[in-house]
Write a structure and sequence with these properties.
By secondary structure, the chain is mainly beta. It has a four-stranded mixed β-sheet with strand order 2-11-3-10. The protein has one domain (3-133): Beta Barrel (Cathepsin D, subunit A, domain 1), CATH 2.40.70.10. The two termini are 19 Å apart. It is built from three helices and 13 strands, in the order E-E-E-H-E-E-E-E-H-E-E-E-E-H-E-E. The chain has helices at residues 26-37, 78-81, 113-116; strands spanning 3-5, 12-15, 22-24, 42-44, 50-53, 64-69, 72-76, 82-85, 93-96, 98-100, 108-111, 120-124, 129-133.
């Protein structure tokens, strides 16, 4: 299994259990998506979402994604960002649980359920800190 390391550190992030995907600025998304789909049978749907042919969510042919949040490197395995998708009369595909959002500027990321399935996020308001267990 290969790894993708995001080329720059995440400047700011919101952890949102009410958001399904990981949303990131277009520049980072284009780099990550290109590496994920390299050599794979993937396609966009009409909404711009990415689907790839895969064995299942645990397909080891897909890379880990490593992001740097405040000098903490966190890895997201394919089992967290690939979601099985079956539709009538077609083969099963995996939905890529990351997307771009051109309204996210200044290296700002929105980390939804795709990220939160991989890590328990601990908030320490008294010491103004955040931690991760994964």
């Amino acid at each position: 299994m290969s790894n993708i390391t995001v080329p720059i550190s995440v400047g700011a992030a919101i952890f949102d259990s009410g958001t399904s995907l990981i949303y990131m600025p277009n520049q980072e998304y284009n780099v990550i998506r290109k590496e994920i789909v390299k050599g794979k049978r993937c396609y966009y749907d009409i909404n711009g979402d990415t689907y790839c042919k895969c064995k299942n969510e645990h397909d080891a042919g897909y890379p880990n994604i490593t992001i740097d949040i405040g000098n903490i490197k966190l890895s997201i395995e394919p089992k967290w960002y690939l979601m099985k998708f079956t539709y009538s009369g077609a083969n099963q595909d995996c939905f890529l649980g990351i997307s771009s959002d051109n309204t996210l500027s200044g290296n700002y990321w929105l980390l939804g359920d795709t990220f939160l399935r991989a890590y328990l996020v601990l908030y320490d308001k008294g010491n103004d800190q955040i931690g991760f267990i994964g």
